[in-house]
């Protein structure tokens, strides 16, 4: 997935490289490479102030999740190149050099299987481990998402490979001015098939997302493995394609702002950046459920860590007060229960962000109906890609 940060503000949310500490040669360091805009600068500052000893913190933001994944691959390739210099093994007292330049990295849950399979990351802990003190505060659904075997598949007996610290969803975003003329606003996926919006919709250029929303409309799962056994799937996809003006995973908001399209499907991390600034735009989580994404902390392979400061950082992100700050300031949802209420959230964002006020009501039920995009067999992935290419012709 090429989910990205869109039109980030230049406030503290757009975290430029933060460096805390004196920076002595022998000083303990914690290096983190993170998705830009996913952690407020003041949260890093608070963590630094609470440490019991002097630690140099280096937090470096990267524009896209894909860039972080590629960085993990680059580190692994360098490590392999070093290992191939076999003669170095015989140097007495040689210290192994860690190739990765970060103790923790942000990764999206969608990338987790590939990172595990390619041995780009190492487990954070065993399932029964107790390094992460706040692990028990996570809902079982989040624990299941990151507990996987060595092939990257869900496994309750596996290891913990990631620590979710914020999440969002796929939403419908629309131009209020245009739809007001039609006398309705979208509430569910089925609205994308309405007669009045033909050739007025932009969809993500992603097979799992587009086919997934059609599966959801048909009462099926985003993670359906045998598409051939879903009646009317191709027929529904063809009908939806007639409604679509273009497919894009990057440039679907600008046409909505300009009024060139009326409806779009996008990621909440993109959409929240524009809702407050363009009142003609609205957004909604489809009532029948949607796809969920999560940003995780992962540990690069090759990092020899005592599990102190990196684990402390993860636990700090999972403290309710910190989780609330991350959620409110980065306009996202938290995997930790917080005391967020509606008044904490900008009014324009309340329809797509979760708060404890809504928890027992509408958004809780929608969350329960929603799904992570889980790993599928390669043969199934080819089915999705082939069908997606076919309907776009």
TrEMBL record:
Q: What Pfam families does the record point to?
A: SBP_bac_6
Identify the InterPro entries for this entry: Sperm_putr-bd (IPR001188)
Give the transmembrane ranges: none
Q: Where, per UniProt, does this protein localize?
A: Periplasm
| Chain segments annotated as coiled-coil in the UniProt record | 223-250
Highest taxon, organism lineage: Bacteria
> What Gene3D superfamilies does the entry give?
Periplasmic binding protein-like II
State the UniProt keywords alphabetically: Coiled coil, Periplasm, Signal, Transport
Q: What SUPFAM superfamilies does this protein's entry cite?
A: Periplasmic binding protein-like II
* Stored PROSITE patterns: PROKAR_LIPOPROTEIN
Which named protein is this?
Extracellular solute-binding protein
């Amino acid at each position: 997935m090429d989910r990205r940060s869109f039109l980030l503000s230049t406030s503290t949310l757009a975290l430029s490289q933060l460096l805390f500490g004196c920076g002595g040669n022998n000083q303990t360091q914690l290096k983190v490479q993170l998705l830009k805009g996913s952690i407020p600068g003041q949260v890093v500052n608070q963590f630094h102030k609470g440490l019991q000893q002097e630690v140099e913190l280096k937090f470096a933001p990267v524009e896209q999740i894909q860039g972080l994944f590629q960085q993990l691959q680059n580190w692994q390739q360098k490590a392999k190149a070093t290992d191939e210099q076999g003669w170095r093994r015989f140097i007495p007292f040689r210290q192994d050099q860690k190739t990765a330049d970060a103790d923790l990295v942000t990764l999206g849950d969608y990338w987790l299987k590939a990172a595990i399979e390619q041995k780009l990351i190492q487990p954070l802990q065993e399932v029964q481990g107790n390094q992460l003190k706040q692990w028990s505060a996570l809902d079982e659904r989040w624990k299941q998402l990151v507990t996987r075997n060595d092939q990257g598949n869900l496994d309750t007996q596996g290891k913990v490979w990631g620590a979710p610290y914020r999440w969002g969803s796929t939403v419908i975003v629309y131009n209020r001015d245009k739809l007001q003329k039609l006398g309705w606003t979208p509430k569910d996926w089925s609205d994308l098939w309405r007669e009045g919006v033909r050739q007025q919709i932009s969809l993500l250029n992603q097979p799992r997302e587009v086919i997934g929303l059609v599966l959801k409309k048909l009462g099926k799962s985003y993670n359906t493995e045998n598409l051939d056994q879903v009646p009317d799937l191709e027929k529904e996809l063809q009908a939806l394609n007639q409604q679509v003006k273009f497919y894009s995973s990057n440039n679907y908001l600008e046409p909505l702002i300009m009024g060139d399209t009326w409806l779009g499907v996008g990621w909440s991390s993109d959409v929240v950046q524009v809702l407050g600034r363009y009142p003609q735009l609205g957004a909604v989580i489809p009532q029948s459920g949607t796809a969920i994404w999560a940003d995780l902390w992962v540990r690069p392979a090759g990092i020899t860590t005592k599990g102190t400061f990196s684990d402390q950082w993860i636990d700090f992100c999972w403290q309710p007060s910190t989780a609330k700050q991350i959620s409110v300031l980065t306009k996202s949802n938290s995997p930790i229960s917080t005391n967020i209420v509606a008044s904490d959230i900008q009014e324009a964002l309340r329809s797509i962000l979760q708060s404890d006020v809504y928890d027992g009501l509408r958004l809780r039920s929608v969350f329960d109906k929603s799904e992570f995009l889980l790993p599928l067999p390669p043969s199934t992935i080819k089915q999705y890609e082939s069908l997606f290419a076919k309907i776009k012709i």
